[in-house]
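Example record for the data management plan.
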Amino acid sequence: MIHKSYSSGDKYKHTARRETDISRVLNGTGITGIGAMKSAYSNNCKVNVCHKDGLPAGTPVKITKPDDEGKECFRCEKATDNKKPWGVVQWTLAANEIGAAVFSGFAFAKVSGQEPDGEYAEPADGGLKRVKSGTARIVYADDKGQALLLLQGSQQETGTTYDGPFAVSASEKKLSVASGWILRNGESVEFTGGSIDAAAGILCVCTTLDENGGWSAPELKFCDPAPDAHPIAEIKTEEVKDDPKEGSSEKEESKEEEKKLKITIRQFPVTVAVINLVMVCPLAEL
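Corresponding structural encoding:
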């Protein structure tokens, strides 16, 4: 909505909508309120949003699309991915009500967890939880979890993506491993790459000797590192629930409510996977 400009002496009509808009402008810019917060609030980056069912204040959200009903706002859903842009709803929204979400700057929200869990917050299960690193710094939090956050946009990957030997990548619930070389008892053998179902644990490339002294084909396994199991990555998994998309039917929603698998990969850079095994010589047992 574009508001008309007025000059001194002009007549105008007070409306609840107009007074609400004025209050939100004042609250958002810090023209009134705690003096120390004035400059902070004036630098906030906010977006007008609405949600089909309404949202509590402090809910982390992501933008999905422009509103298709002519409202000057964006449709939003609860955020679940810290690596994509997300913001915090400033006040409680009724169904389809337009409100503001802060994507960069200061915002109030409730955060679960204790101080030792970390000094940052990220989306989790429709709310926020403490973590060791991220883009939303916890400036202050009381003993009930009510916190003042400094949001700094989406999480950016640091450094470069590892793409060397045995590089591990994830897609849906599968892990793919790039090719690499194995040095087993002085013999170089190429592992041509492979895939395995994602699970939590240490991912190893394995090859071992059989009772006749022959080598097994290299394969991927989740196991403890051993003389015949060279570690290439540590994998962590977490089931997360994603919100149903707006406009979906009840049947579609029941499918979309299924939990998705969040996979975290801690890559171990490996130049060559070294396997050294020995067997007792049969003649030594005579």
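Summary line stored alongside the record: The radius of gyration is 27 Å.
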